[in-house]
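I would like you to sit down with the record closing this message with an eye to the fold:
=====
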Amino acid sequence: MILAMDTSTDVLTVSLHDGKEIIEEYSSKNKNKHSTRLMPAIDRIMKEAKVKPEQLTKIIVGIGPGSYTGIRIALSTAKTMAWTLNIPVVGVSSLKALCLSAIMSEGYVCSFLDARRGLVYAGLYDKEGKSVLPEMNIHIDQWIEKLAQYDEPITFISPDAAHFQSLIHERLGESANFGGPGHQLIRAGLLAEYGKDMAPTDPHLLVPNYLRMVEAEAKWLEAKRKSDNER
């Protein structure tokens, strides 16, 4: 039995997967309570499925990017459980996990998260979920410029979609599509489905994927953009 979890965004999501299908799944949107709600959520779905800890065979966890604190909550929980139960653990990019709800869409899938100061964590994938552009921390204007080079439609998936939707439509026009509200969130069930056949990582070597510019670089970039706009 596979346990999957992600707390890298406002949504806490956990699931159980038997290797063939999703058995239980639970999601809750309240980022300020991830630390106190994650273990009760895991306990809840395991009781619902009548699964005991010793029946778990693998743990899959979203490793970011996203909220620094949120990433660490799920990652530390997954590593501790994997070590205690002596079972493999797999880390999956939270951007990859986010794009899974739109796999098989026409054209490409872009998953992204607001990284503040006009920056986004973003990745571009084909309809099978394979990476087309590497995940990066980049200014939204620069990211849109990169996407404008592609002729096929792009489906945007993000819990922060509303913040950037007008700008993206303005720059990319009809080639930009947005999934409905239910498709803009990470689902642990899809995370489990994606990661179930992935090779495990030593718990001690599994680290967060912060994908973050250092503070000085972010400030320099913002100052440069303001200077360029004033010319």
